[in-house]
Amino acid sequence: MVKKVEHGQEKEQSQQPIRLLTPYKLGNFQLFHRIVLAPMTRQRSYGNLPQPHAVLYYSQRTSKGGLLITEATGVSDTSLIGFPFAPGIWTKEQVEAWKPIVDAVHAKGGIIFCQIAHVGRVSGSQPNGQAPISSTDKPLTPEGFDAPKYSPPRRLKTEEIPGIVNDFRLAAINAIEAGFDGVEIHGAHGFLIDQFLKDQINDRTDEYGGSLENRCRFALEIVEAVSDAIGSHRVGLRLSPFANYYEAGDSNPKALGLYMAEALNKPKILYCHMVEPRMKTLGEKSESADSLVPMRKAFNGTFIAAGGYNREDGDRAVAENGADLVAYGRLFLANPDLPRRFELNASLNKYHRDTFYTSDPVVGYTDYPFLETND
Ligand SMILES: Cc1cc2nc3c(=O)[nH]c(=O)nc-3n(C[C@H](O)[C@H](O)[C@H](O)COP(=O)(O)O)c2cc1C
Questions:
Q1: Where is the composition biased (Polar residues) (predicted)?
Q2: Within the chain, where are the H helices?
Q3: Whose CA is nearest to atom 21 of ligand 1?
C-alpha cells in the first residue's frame, strides 16, 4: 500500500508546487496549505467522552499550518442519542477530555475547529423516554436509511427554540475553553439544523417554517448567538443544500444555498463550508449539473468546498477560484499524511469503509500507514 518515493521524483515534484499547497490567510490563522481535514464521525468516544486515543488520531493528521475540523460533537445530552460513541462538549469532563487532543494538534503547528452538532430526529428515543426533537413530527419512513433505529420525533415548540440555540452557544464557549481555535456549526446532512432548512422536511407554520427566510431563521440565530459568544472570526458553518440525507431534501437547493451564503455576510463569519452537489446521496458520489460557484461568489468570507475531491480536482478548484480551501474526508482518514502525499504526488492508501464507524481505538483509526520516504 505504501509507495517508496525516490529522491529524484521528490525533487521533481517539489519544483512544481500545486495550488493546494500554497499558503492562505484564514482570518487570524496562517495556513501553509489548502488541504483541510473534513469533519468525520469516528464513533470511538465511549460514553460521549473524547478518549486518549483521539490524541494520536488527530495529531497524525496534523501538519504545520494545516486546518483540522473535528468529528461532529454534541452540544447537549439530547444531541447524540443513537450515536453513543460520538463525543460531546456540553460537560466539564468532556471539555477536559478534549484539551490534550487540541494541545497535541497545536504542538505540531496545526489549527483545529470543533464541529458542534445536534442530530435532531436522526436519533433513538431519549434517556428519559422522550421523543427526539426536530422541526417536524414526521418520522423517517420505514424504507429510509436505517429508519428502524430511529424514533418518531417531537416537533419543537416555538418557545423551546431559544433553548436549543443556547445549547450551541454554550458548546461554542466550551470549545474555546477546551482550547479550540474555533467552531464549525454543523448545518448539513439532514441533522437538526438541516431539518429546519429544507422544505421537504420542515412543515412548520410558525416563524421557523414556510418561507426561505423562516426556514433559515434557526440556523442564522445559532450563527449569531455563537458569533456573539466567541467572535465571528472563530465561526464557520457547514451546509449541504443539495444533499438529501435522512430524507432532508429541498425543492430549490440553489436558492437555499444562495440565501444562506448571502445571509452569512452579515455576521461576517470566518468561513462557509459547503458540500458539493455531487454528494447527493449519503457516502456516494454521482455526477451533477449543479455547482457551488454561485454560493462561492455570493459569500464574502473563506469558502471551503468538500465532497469527492482528489488531488487533481481539488487543485483545480483552488486554481480556478472555485474554493479557497478543500476539505478531504475519506482520503484524509486513510492517509494521515495526505498533504505530504499530495506534495509528492505519491500513491494513496485505500480507505476501508467497514471500519469507518467501528469502535476499535486502533483498527481503521490510527493504523493507516504513513508514506515511507528516503529522507
Ligand atoms: C466516516 C465518515 C464520517 C463522517 N462524519 C461527518 C461528520 O461528523 N460531520 C460532517 O459534517 N460530515 C461527516 N462526514 C462527511 C465528510 O465530512 C465529507 O463531506 C464526505 O466524506 C465527502 O467527502 P470525501 O469524498 O472527501 O470523503 C463523514 C464522512 C465519513 C466517511
A1: 125-138
A2: 7-14, 53-60, 92-107, 161-177, 192-197, 212-230, 253-263, 293-298, 311-319, 330-334, 338-344
A3: 329
